[in-house]
Design a protein that fits this description.
The protein is an alpha+beta fold and about 425 residues long. It is built from three helices and 33 strands.
C-alpha cells in the first residue's frame, strides 16, 4: 500500500533541500508539511517488489553542507502462502494430536492453530500439539493461520472427529456362561459409539467371524452352529471396534454337547441266556446329564427304567410267563438333558426250566388220568358181572316160582320184594 516518509531537518542558515532515495534511480524531493513541519514524501509500495529497502535522506543547507541519514523499510504487499499438512479433513483423532503446517512469505510473523476457535497456540517450526482428551468425542474444526509482518493473515481449516472412548458393548441375549447346549444358538450384543461402530466380530480359536446388525432388533446377532465344533468347551471373544481403533471385548464360554449318553455297562450281555426274573441294568455317562433310559423288549412298549442309588438304571422282567425263545432283542434308548438320544440293541435267549409247581401239576394230572382209566375199566367189569346175575334171577323167578309156592315158600309179593332188593344191591 502507500507509505509516507517523514524527515526532520533544520539548520540555522536554513535547509535548502531534502532528497530521498531507496533504490538506484529513485531520488525524489521531500517537501515540507507545514502541519507537521516534516519533510515528507508519499510512496506507493505496490510499485515496488516485496523486500527490504534502505531509505536514504540527504539534507542540504544554505551553505551547501550535507547531512545524510538512512533507515531500512520493508515492502510486503503479498499475503502469506499457507499449507496445512495435518490433520486433514476427515481424520479421526485421539490422544495427543500434532498439527503441522507450512507458511511461506517474505516477512512471516506468526503461525498459530486453534481447535474450534478457542484460543490460539503458537507453532514452532511448523508444528504444534494438543491433547484431544480435553474435547468431547465428536466433530471438531482445527484452524491454522499465518500472519506476515504487515499484518496480512491467511487461514486453513480441517474438519476432524475426536474419539477417545471405546465403543459400548453389552450382552443382549446370550446363553448362561458355561451353559451346555446343542444345535444352533443365537448370540446378540448391543454396541454403540459416538463416532460410529466400524465392526463387531466374534473370534473362536484362530477364526474371526463377522457379526452383523439386525435392523429389526438393533442388535448385532450371530448364530453358533454347535455341530461345527467338537463336544466340549468353546471359548469365544466378541469385539466391537470404532473408527479410531478403540476396541471393547466380551469373553464368553459355552459347552457344546451333541452326543447322546454313553452306555458304560449293561446286562444281560448280548447273546446271553436268561431265565426266571431278569434284571435289566444299564450304566450311562454324559457330560450334560441323563434325562432318561428307556427299555423295549422285543416289539413291546417302551418302559422307563428306574434310577437306583448307585447310579444304575434297573428294570425287572418276569420271564416265566413268557414263551422260551432264542434271539429275543431288547433295545435301550438313552437320552440326555439336551435331547441327544441313541438306541442300543442286544439279543438274549429265554430258556426257563420246568418249575416244581408244574412238575407237581403234571404228576397230579397223570395220576388223575390213570385213576380215570382204572375206574372206567372196573366199571365195565362190574357191569359185565351184573348182567350175568340178572339172567340167573330171571330163570329162578320164572320157572320155579310155582314150585316154590307149593313148597310153602314166602308169599308172592314178599318174594318179589326180596328179588327187587337183591337186584338193587347188584346194581350198586
Amino acid at each position: 500500500g502507500g507509505i509516507t516518509f517523514q524527515v526532520a531537518s533544520s539548520d540555522a542558515r536554513g535547509v535548502r533541500t531534502v532528497w530521498l532515495s531507496w533504490e538506484e534511480g529513485s531520488s525524489v524531493f521531500a517537501t515540507v508539511n507545514t502541519a507537521t513541519n516534516y519533510y515528507e514524501y508519499g510512496l506507493d509500495t505496490t510499485t515496488l517488489a516485496d523486500g527490504t529497502y534502505t531509505l536514504t535522506a540527504i539534507s542540504t543547507d544554505g551553505s551547501g553542507l550535507i547531512t545524510e541519514a538512512t533507515v531500512e523499510f520493508h515492502v510486503d504487499n503479498t499475503e502469506p502462502m499457507l499449507e496445512l499438512h495435518g490433520p486433514l479433513s476427515g481424520a479421526i483423532l485421539d490422544g495427543e494430536v500434532v498439527v503441522s503446517a507450512t507458511a511461506t512469505d517474505t516477512f512471516i510473523d506468526t503461525l498459530q492453530f486453534s481447535v474450534d476457535g478457542v484460543g490460539w497456540v503458537d507453532m514452532e517450526d511448523g508444528e504444534g500439539t494438543f491433547d484431544s482428551s480435553g474435547f468431547a468425542d465428536g466433530d471438531h474444526t482445527i484452524t491454522v493461520r499465518a500472519i506476515d509482518g504487515s499484518g496480512k493473515a491467511v487461514s486453513a481449516d480441517s474438519a476432524v472427529t475426536i474419539d477417545n472412548n471405546a465403543p459400548l458393548l453389552s450382552v443382549a441375549d446370550f446363553p448362561a456362561m458355561d451353559e451346555h447346549l446343542a444345535g444352533d444358538r443365537l448370540f446378540a450384543v448391543f454396541s454403540d459409539d459416538t463416532v460410529g461402530v466400524v465392526s463387531v466380530t466374534v473370534t473362536i480359536g484362530d477364526e474371526e467371524l463377522p457379526v452383523y446388525i439386525n435392523p429389526a432388533t438393533g442388535f448385532y446377532e450371530w448364530t453358533l452352529k454347535s455341530t461345527d465344533y467338537a463336544d466340549g468347551v468353546v471359548d469365544m471373544t466378541f469385539t466391537s471396534a470404532d473408527a479410531a481403533g478403540h476396541n471393547t471385548t466380551i469373553d464368553w464360554s459355552v459347552f457344546v454337547d451333541n452326543t447322546a449318553p454313553v452306555v458304560v455297562e449293561q446286562s444281560p450281555k448280548d447273546g446271553s441266556e436268561v431265565k426266571e426274573i431278569v434284571h435289566f441294568e444299564v450304566t450311562v455317562t454324559d457330560d450334560t446329564g441323563t434325562e432318561s433310559v428307556m427299555l423295549r423288549i422285543g416289539h413291546g412298549p417302551w418302559i422307563t427304567m428306574n434310577l437306583q442309588d448307585d447310579g444304575t438304571y434297573l428294570y425287572k422282567w418276569e420271564t416265566t410267563t413268557e414263551d422260551d425263545q432264542e434271539g429275543l432283542e431288547y433295545t435301550v434308548r438313552v437320552t440326555d438333558d439336551l435331547g441327544n438320544s441313541e438306541d442300543h440293541t442286544y439279543s438274549i435267549d429265554v430258556n426257563n426250566p420246568m418249575s416244581m409247581a408244574w412238575i407237581a401239576l403234571a404228576i397230579i394230572l397223570a395220576v388223575l388220568v390213570l385213576l380215570g382209566i382204572f375206574f372206567m375199566r372196573k366199571r365195565e367189569q362190574e357191569l359185565d358181572e351184573t348182567e350175568g346175575e340178572d339172567e340167573d334171577l330171571e330163570e329162578i323167578s320164572s320157572e320155579d316160582f310155582d314150585s316154590l309156592v307149593d313148597l310153602g315158600s314166602p308169599q308172592e309179593d314178599v318174594l318179589a320184594d326180596e328179588v327187587a332188593v337183591e337186584l338193587d344191591e347188584k346194581a350198586l
